[in-house]
Amino acid sequence: MLISVVICSYNRRDHLVAAVGSVLEQKGEYELVVVDNRSSDGTAEAMAEIVRDHPQVRYVYEERPGLAVARNTGWGAATGSFVAFLDDDARVGPEWLETARALIELHQDDLACVGGPIHPFYTSEKPDWWQDAYEIRTRGDIERPLTPGESFSGSNMVWRRDLLATYGGFDTSAGMKGEQLGMGEETALFRRVWEGEGSPVFWYSPELKVYHWVPPEKMTMTYILKRATANGQFEARFALSQADGLGGRLRLVGRAARTVAVEIPRTLLKRRHYRRTQNWYFEHCFIPIQHVSTLLRLLGVRISVTQREAS
Fold it and tell me: What angle do the packed helices 245-270 and 221-242 form, to 10 degrees?
């Protein structure tokens, strides 16, 4: 069984080279498709050297900006029956693909996707209040199918390729686009498959591990504000796409306003239980900020969030 690994990159040459290196340690049959999404930092030259020495690696240049666009280009170029997605600033252990292959073979019936947890790694000193849990993406310590509505994080998911084709891949109106921070391109795909397939099998295993870089700017309150705002904008756009005219929009506004009115006082009251503002903020403020952003977008306020230059 051929698994295609897709890594999409925008101006992160050094991290990309390390991510590719971790994939090249995998055993068994696989191909690696690297999609360069308009990088200007020498990514093309670095990849040319790797491609020359590793025939299982292919380099694809995608001019149109956006992570979702690049991912769609990647799985479109892939030849494997399953497509694994990995971020350009992530790393995998040497048994990652072996684990994915075993999960696929064990759960073939109606299998849509397998995924696993994402753990952090650092190249800078962590603040003394920081907890690794703030950057761990997990569905628990027990192998299980996801329940309706759940999804995997984008840097550790292995999709059945024909299902990606059936549902059109990732939502190109959402997600990262160059310097713009966006969210939701994976979430939208999972929601379409949940709705369209009846009982799709999304299989989670805590053994399918990926390690993701946490830069200094992610360990700040500003980043949570940006990420939650971007997610709220996506959730509003998605809700509006499902709403029935003006009446549906007004119902969404009323529901969002009631949620914000309840959540903000409740979240503020929790501050008294924390010695450090940062811990309270990271543990409780994401959802209220997201809902405020959702309410604003439902009211017609569009917010564009810029992320720090990738490095």
Answer: 150
What residue type is 250 in one-letter code? L
Contact 242, 287 (CB under 8 A): no
Task: Tokens 């008294």: give the residue.
Answer: 272
Geometric angle at alpha carbon 138, from 141 and 188, rounded to 5°: 135
Residue 181 one-letter amino acid: L
Report DSSP state, residue 131: -
Domains of the chain by start residue, with CATH: 3-218 (3.90.550.10), 220-306 (no CATH)
The Cα 101–Cα 6 span in angstroms is: 16
Neighbours of 136 (CB within 10 A): 12
Give Rg (Cα) of the chain: 20
**What is the helix (H) or strand (E) element at residue 238, kind and residue range?**
helix 221-242
Are the C-beta atoms of residues 118 and 136 closer than 8 Å to each other?
A: yes
Single-letter residue type at 125: E
Q: Which of 205, 206, 113, 110 has the alpha carbon at shortest distance from 151?
A: 113
Please enumerate in sequence order all residues whose Cβ is within 8 A of that of 121, keeping only pairs 6 or more positions apart, or say none: 91, 211, 212, 213, 214
Q: How many CA atoms lie within 13 A of 271 on its CB side?
A: 10
Distances (CA, A) of 255 to 195, 201, 260, 301: 23, 31, 9, 17
Q: How far is CA 252 from the centre of its chain?
A: 26
Asked if residue 172 lies in contact with residue 72, where contact means CB atoms within 8 angstroms, the answer is yes
pTM metric for this prediction: 0.94
Per residue in 18-66, pLDDT (tens digit) is: 999 999 999 999 999 999 999 999 999 999 999 999 999 999 999 999 9
Does residue 100 surpass a pLDDT of 70?
yes
289 - beta bridge partners?
Answer: none
Q: How confident is the model at residue 198 (pLDDT cuts 50, 70, 90)?
A: confident
